[in-house]
């Protein structure tokens, strides 16, 4: 891990950009931090520069509770090399949506599964590097999407102690098997009228999780209409499980 820039934000938050090999990322830490702090990994749908304002807002909220936050760029997003297979699958997806047709499971698999297979090891490598920093301790939470990546990471990474998952993306059938292996406490956010989400698939995935403690928070509205209090509830969830 190599830090490439830093700036101090209002409210006592230090923001540092880094690279991990070819992977760009951002780390936000509360200041001052007299002892190592818990860490929240911030998932997102890709395009770190485009998502930066929303990620920063989430990181600031987490810092108020004494948490560090980190995000990395997804494979094939931002300035990272594109996958021809993923680009074709994305084109097939948009073609089906524009025609008002259901998206074929084969298209979902081609788009999501290779992404998860690449992203999960990268998240684990980032976690190795972040936990080696003296200011970062544990435990670790994951917050956000893409939900298939988050589910697979939670299923295979024992250092994830709790997760806030954002329903709202297409889910391959294989991810339901991963969900049965997830046992950490879960807080799942679902926008009931999300135009890009298969609501029933999200409900079925929630039912598949093996966690004894899992909560579903459904709010009316579309994909970008998550109410502010939903984020506050998610932060309180982490305060219960990461402190």
Notes on the structure:
The protein is α/β, with parallel strands linked by helices. It has a single domain, classed as Rossmann fold. The protein has seven helices and nine strands. Helix 4 links the parallel strand 6 and strand 7. The radius of gyration is 17 Å and the shape is globular.
In short:
The protein has 243 residues and is an alpha/beta fold.
Features:
243 residues, alpha/beta, Rossmann fold, 42% helix
Terminal residue distance: 26 Å
Question: CATH homologous superfamily - what is it?
Answer: Alpha/Beta hydrolase fold, catalytic domain
Which whole number gives the mean pLDDT? 93
CATH class: Alpha Beta
Shape designation: globular
H-E string:
EEEEHEHHEHEHEHEH
Unreliable segments of 5+ consecutive residues? none
Overall number of strands:
9
Gyration radius (Cα, Å) is 17 Å
Structural class: alpha/beta
Tell me roughly what share of residues is in helical segments.
40-55%
Distinct helical segment count: 7
